[in-house]
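Hi all, long-time lurker, first post. I run a small reading group and we've been trying to get comfortable going from sequence to structure in the token notation. Rather than ask abstract questions, I figured I'd post a concrete chain and ask someone more experienced to write out its structure so we can walk through it together at our next meeting. Sequence below, copied exactly:
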Amino acid sequence: MDLLGFFSSVPPLARRVGAQPSHSIDGFPDGAVGRIVGKVGHLGEERLSAPLTGRACAAWFVRVSGAELAGRGHPPLEARGVAPFAVIDATGLAIVDTASISLLLEPDVTETLGFSRRPPLSLLHFLRSRGKEGRRVAIDWRLSWQEGILAEGQRVAVLGRGRREVDPDSPQGGYRNAATRLVMESERDGEELVVSTFARSLRSQRGLALS
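-- Answer (accepted) --
Happy to help. Here is the structure in token form:
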């Protein structure tokens, strides 16, 4: 899995995603590379909880600065989690292959500790779970943290290669007559499968947000 850093402004990759041709899920060409925009849907019963806020989600990204977890200085700590999910638009449903994706989740939680606060218990637990065993986590007033999630019903853009496969839930009989479904994946070496919630990724090529 490729873990991208957390950005305080729109990352170049989010702009590049938004510049790619967009297709409806039903009209996505088999084997082509392109972009779809829709709403997040869960697959199966698996749900994740964002570590700092406890919110239910299909994916999360956390960045913490100012906590010395290893080595010298105060390196940022970045972590993420991803569960199986789908993207839904007015024309159909696409499954996102989460085995190898780049997450660009715009933060909706950004906080700084300062002098007068204590770190939330959820943050301390998160830091301790990712620090070295038996080592104390050093925290100072400069501690800051951000969290972004991918929640059910949230609008998202996915850039990758689309592959059509027989839908096992299709009621139609016979392989030739069976309905197909779209799978967004990174099939070839050097290709990216990018999932982005940044507004620049959701726009049409004329700069208007896609519905």
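A couple of things your group might point at:
Residues 1-8 have pLDDT under 50 and may be disordered.
The CA atoms of residues 69 and 130 lie 8 Å apart.
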